[in-house]
Amino acid sequence: MIVDTLQRPLQSLRISVTDRCNLRCNYCMPEEHYTWLPRESLLTFEEIVRAAAAFVHAGVRKMRLTGGEPLLRRDIPALVRMLRAIDGIDEIALTTNGLLLAPVAHALRDAGLDRVTVSIDTLRPERMAAFARSARHADVVAGIVALRDAGFARTKLNAVVVRGYNDDELADLVRFAADHDAEMRFIEYMDVGGATQWRDDRVLTREEILKTLGEAFGTPATGRRRGDPHAPAESFVFPRIGTVGVIASTTTPFCRNCDRARLTADGTLFTCLYATGGHDLRAILRDASADQDALRNAIAAIWRARTDRGAEERLAEPDRQPLLELGDLRADPRREMHVRGG
Ligand code: SAM
Ligand code: SF4
Ligand code: SF4
């Protein structure tokens, strides 16, 4: 097992397969224009799989495909099938906004995908239109329905809670998830790169989320990181509805247990969502003289030197403002949440 300077093992990998997105969620992509990663810099499926295999060799057991919107990349089931062929992976999951999910749900399951998380912040199409600039709310719901039909279990639904946007829908979202055999998870609004509209008074805190849910569903049992101590979500079991997850990255960060690496679509490795810089693995992947051991050793060396505690450091800021300004984001799109994969 490879551990970093804080004794945190490298065990999970988020792979962003594209920086493009068909939504413009206000907490993630609020601007009119973006600088995109150059096409020729994007890893091919074959390169992604070689990188993934090297991460597995370095200790990774769980993988998640993300983006941007991962289903905008053509033939994701083929990528899942290729990843599935790597020995030693316990779980392959996908995080999607659901717009393109319904038509590919069966193919994803057949390819060997284990689990899906769908982001759904509101049950009101007009709110999605205003907040995420899309009229396709019905497609998201159809995607969630299609998951069950395709045989997926343990589906999770994610909502970022933003005061004044969806904070009056928490109980409705939990009921909606229960009706669709899924577990609802609420994420505190984070001041990550790209979140240029972030303000601390827009963050509904973990305590406020739990109070609202408690009023609707009764007092929950104490939160636990179920099964996996490295999981970002705390699970709360409410007497009248069951389990709800809360990811309190802004007010109660969990950096000391963070076992997660992130690979961007252009092959840059980030060891923290808040890290200012990444590590270029594409150069190694495209160097004919470098073999899989070279790649694995590079990953291991980067992880061993890791000191990141981004969210904990942000918490210590006395006057918290958005992490980065527009100019910084335009200069290096890899600082954006939608490029790092969330
Ligand atoms: N497009 C896919 C989706 O939305 O599910 C996958 C990529 S998205 C960047 C991954 C996750 O990041 C989503 O669950 C999204 O809600 C979350 N996210 C984006 N910006 C955020 C922010 N400012 N605070 C908290 N979560 C955020
Ligand atoms: Fe929304 Fe995900 Fe797209 Fe960001 S990447 S704008 S969170 S759908
Ligand atoms: Fe991990 Fe960085 Fe997030 Fe902390 S802020 S949990 S170190 S990715």
Task: Give the strand content.
Answer: 15-25%
**Total domains, how many?**
1
Question: What is the mean pLDDT?
Answer: 96
Unreliably modeled segments: none
Shape: globular
Looking at how many chains there are and whether they match, the oligomeric state comes to single chain
Helix count equals 12
Q: How far do the termini sit from each other?
A: 25 Å
Descriptive keywords:
globular, alpha/beta, binds S-adenosylmethionine, binds iron/sulfur cluster, 342 residues, TIM Barrel, 11-stranded mixed beta sheet
Put the structure in a nutshell.
By secondary structure, the chain is α/β, with parallel strands linked by helices.
How would you characterize this protein structure?
- The chain contains twelve helices and eleven strands.
- With 342 residues, the protein is of the alpha/beta class.
- The chain has a single domain (12-335), classed as Aldolase class I (TIM Barrel, Alpha-Beta Barrel).
- It has an eleven-stranded mixed beta sheet with strand order 7-8-6-5-4-3-2-1-9-10-11.
- β10 (268-270) and β11 (279-280) form a beta hairpin.
- α1 (45-57) packs across α9 (292-304), α2 (76-84) runs parallel beside α3 and α3 packs parallel to α5 (137-150).
- The model has no long low-confidence stretch (mean pLDDT 96).
- S-adenosylmethionine binds at residues 21, 27-28, 66-67, 69, 95-97, 119, 158, 160, 187, 189-190, 192, 195, 337-338, 341-342.
- One iron/sulfur cluster binds at residues 21, 23-25, 28-29, 67-69, 97, 119, 338.
